[in-house]
Amino acid sequence: MAGVKQPSDKSHFILPDLGEGLVEAELISWKVNPGERVKEQQTLCEMQTDKALVEVPSPWTGLVSELCGGAGDIIKVGAVLVRYKIDAGAMASAPAKASGCVSASVAAAVNAEGDQGTVVGTMSGTLDVGSRFARRDAEHLTANAGAASANGAKALATPAVRGVAKKLGIDINRVAGTGRGGRVTASDVEVFADRASASPSGGAATAPRAIPAPVPLPPVDADGVAQRIPFRGVRRKIAESLTRSIQTAVHFTVTNEADVTALDARRRESSKVVGRKISMLPFVMRAVCAALRRHPSLNAIVDDAKSEILIKGVINLSMAVDTDSGLMVPVLHGADQKSVLDLADGVKRLADRCRDRTISREESLGGTFTISNVGSYGGVFATPIINYPEVAILAVGRAREQVMVKDGRFYAGLSLPLSLACDHRVVDGAEGARFLNTVVGFLEDPAALLG
């Protein structure tokens, strides 16, 4: 890239967009120190998004001069993450990599507009910072904003970004997007707001924005505290996700029990055939897939930003996995196309990747229905919280032996408790009960389930 203007002596590495719709990430730990020389693609830090732990690499070789933030800090997308000196020629060679060449238009923009850049990439365990390099300039954003508004086009943005724009009092349709496919990112909105407020004519700002007073928190009794644990990482993301679900979805729960005596006998036979133990969970997953085909309204997500219910044509089962870091929810894609053995292998693979923190963001996205196996820890019935924006979640309890009655005769059978929570905005109570009855029917008829 001859002719590209070199960075100044001191450069800023701005936190890129770590995934679709994310506006911030939590800094978990630094992997470098101030004054340390780093190489291109060397890991700078670990950051926790709402779905995965991400390693953020350096986009170039240089000397780290300042680390902006500490463990537990929430870093906004577009904020300065690292300040450091760049080796001469580093920026000229970095974009020429075959893995992510810079287009001529981007190169011209960098050459014409200056030296500070935003690195935008995709996330799959480790961030790829070589895919695009372009400066998000405030003047560029506001110059294009009028054209975007004049065309009358509706801005492409996620609900989270629209929430940021609403909070700042910005008409998001006036903001030029720099994200993938022209999407408006949170940093686009913030830069637009800063530029508008600084403009003598007021720009897009219509009136001074009132800042709501923070709600005072209740006092906390600190007497007798044995340990203080920072509320961060996966645990904080879980709290944020659950709070969003409770505040958005209208929960109701219906319960039932399935006589899995015959199914358990088939499960034991299958375990002997394959030479390893198969749990009841993959059989339940297969029953859920079959039931979702008959009750598609539960295989859906809600797009609250557009006030739409999206019925999915694919069945991707999300699974709640307990780890040392907290609850994680990976997704088994195309679950309805898999055999019981494939489901068992998929569950183990994803659970292992969650526990050793190698799960990728792609393996945590796209779920259409969630299953939580509370029975593995001794639970019976539950009132599970929906994995928003999905509309339903099934909690599977611990199968237990008990006296049952059938055709007027007593017998010792195995009962499996099931608890289904649905979003009442989408699923009526009767439909939720019918779906759960369909699941029970498949579990009590192994021939129909496995045929």
General description of the model:
The chain is of the alpha+beta class and 451 residues long. 29% of the residues lie in helices and 26% in strands. It has 11 helices and 21 strands. It has helices at 90-93, 104-113, 138-150, 159-168, 186-198, 234-248, 261-274, 281-294, 340-355, 429-443, 446-450; strands at residues 11-14, 24-30, 37-38, 43-48, 53-57, 62-67, 74-76, 80-86, 117-124, 126-134, 251-259, 300-303, 308-311, 317-319, 321-323, 326-328, 331-332, 369-372, 392-396, 400-406, 409-423. Strands 11, 14, 17, 18, 19, 20 and 21 form a 7-stranded mixed sheet that branches. Helix 3 crosses helix 5 (186-198), helix 8 (281-294) crosses helix 9 and helix 8 packs across helix 10. The N and C termini lie far apart (61 Å). The relative contact order is 0.11.
Integer-rounded radius of gyration: 26 Å
User: For the report, how would you describe the main beta sheet?
Assistant: 7 strands, mixed
Structural class of the helix and strand makeup? alpha+beta
Average pLDDT, all residues: 79
Q: Rough shape?
A: elongated
The number of helices is 11
Termini separation (Å)?
A: 61 Å
